[in-house]
Design brief:
The chain is an all-alpha fold. The protein is built from twelve helices and two strands. Strands 1-2 form a two-stranded antiparallel sheet.
């Protein structure tokens, strides 16, 4: 609708310029002596080209703050604005009348009336440009939300096989976490001063000494291309190779490649291996020690849990026996239902149910329990005071019922024909109690 309106405006402007139509000039003010008429100015007969309307919205409507080259009709003379009239006071609604319903919210995307009736093409173009930017922003937001929706939908398992695969993946992740935790503990152990000074440092020293000593020895090997025996100095790579060989193979290789320094090289390799094995053994001992600590902690936690449950049951039993208000009552279904409901609410503090509540619900629960606990002793005092008052009144009533009023046993005069004031009060008392 907006595009058709703007295209019509463009066409109307084009037709006016092609026909050479010019708005009538405003009347000249009256003067004492008329001036000579000015020479007429010839109007350019070349019609003004209207902007080409392309299919692209952005090309059809340039930036609103750009230069407006579209010709406009001559401005019309406007009458002087009249003083605004004071609005009449709003009528008061009649007594008992319902207030008028609020008007519906305006549609932010509807074409305003002032734009639809405007003859200013720049105003129309500004509105169109703003609507276009708003539409693009909404489209981008919609696309982003659609991407998130697709990602969430794809992540939700739809079949039992997918759910089983997800459960297995979670289990595997849990095993990885446990493995990482073990590595972290081991890393922490290797960073300790004891490990560094007693195991890591001696091994590094022995390995360095072995590399230096091997560099002073001649290694003999046969060149595969020429078949000749070649000699060179031993290297760190040779040491690592010899250290990782089984004992029998290690002796064979040392005798083959270091025939002139067999005993010396064997001593260097054995010393480095001894220090390395000491560090490896200490790591293994630490792992076993940690497993023992973990097992002891698990046993301790299980024992503490059992003790807590036993103590919990014992204390609750003792409280209900000493205070019947904490236990269900025979014949009080309504009271027992209230007690059961409140116990479920209170038990949320000792289970995972509280953690599953929202922040707002947790705050409500905590505040409610705080106020109830704080008011408990005062309520107990008030109830005890009322019970004492009731007991005192019951004793008074029993005493009154067992007493004999003055004049008892005397015959009443038949001619009296009326009940005395004391007799009337006694009869009323007997009927009430």
């Amino acid at each position: 609708m907006l595009r058709k309106f703007i295209i019509g405006r463009f066409s109307q402007q084009e037709q006016q310029h092609q026909a050479g139509a010019v708005a009538d000039p405003p009347p000249a003010p009256a003067a004492a002596a008329p001036a000579a008429p000015a020479a007429p100015v010839a109007r350019d007969a070349t019609p003004i080209e209207s902007p080409q309307l392309e299919s692209s919205f952005d090309n059809s409507f340039p930036e609103a703050d750009g230069e407006d080259t579209t010709p406009k009709p001559a401005p019309e003379r406007k009458p002087a604005a009249a003083a605004p009239a004071k609005p009449a006071p709003a009528a008061k609604p009649a007594a008992g009348a319902k207030p008028a319903a609020a008007p519906p919210a305006a549609d932010p995307y509807a074409l305003p009336k002032e734009v639809a009736e405007s003859k200013d093409l720049k105003q129309v173009r500004e509105f169109a440009y703003g609507q276009n930017k708003r539409a693009k922003a909404l489209e981008a937001e919609k696309a982003a939300l659609q991407i998130k929706f697709d990602e969430i939908s794809a992540a939700v398992p739809k079949t039992q096989a997918e759910r089983d695969a997800l459960a297995k993946k979670v289990t595997d992740y849990q095993k990885q976490v446990e493995s990482y935790e073990e590595r972290t503990r081991l890393l922490d152990f290797k960073q300790s001063d004891k490990y560094k000074n007693e195991f890591e440092k001696p091994y590094v020293e022995a390995f360095t000494k072995a590399v230096e000593g091997l560099g002073q020895c001649q290694l003999h090997y046969t060149d595969k291309e020429t078949g000749e025996v070649v000699t060179r100095a031993g290297t760190q790579t040779d040491l690592v190779y010899l250290m990782n060989l089984p004992e029998a193979k290690q002796e064979e290789e040392i005798a083959k490649h270091f025939p002139n320094n067999r005993g010396y090289v064997t001593k260097l390799v054995d010393k480095a291996n001894e220090r390395r094995q000491a560090a490896i053994t200490e790591e293994a001992n630490y792992k076993e020690k940690w497993k023992t600590i973990e097992a002891d902690n698990a046993t301790r936690r299980a024992t503490e849990s059992t003790q807590i449950v036993e103590a919990w049951n014992a204390v609750n039993k003792d409280l209900t026996e000493k205070n019947p208000a904490f236990a269900p009552r025979d014949g009080d279904a309504e009271g027992n239902k209230l007690l059961e409901t409140d116990l479920k609410v209170a038990d949320m503090f000792f289970t995972d149910a509280r953690a599953k509540l929202s922040v707002k619900d947790r705050v409500i629960l905590d505040a409610t329990m705080r106020q109830r606990y704080a008011a408990h002793n005062r309520l107990v005092r008030d109830v005890a005071a009322k019970d004492a008052t009731i007991a005192e009144l019951n004793a008074t009533i029993a005493e009154l019922r067992g007493s004999t009023p003055s004049g008892a046993g005397k015959p009443v005069s038949p001619e009296a024909g009326a009940v005395t004031e004391s007799e009337g009060a006694e009869s009323a008392f007997d009927k009430k109690f």
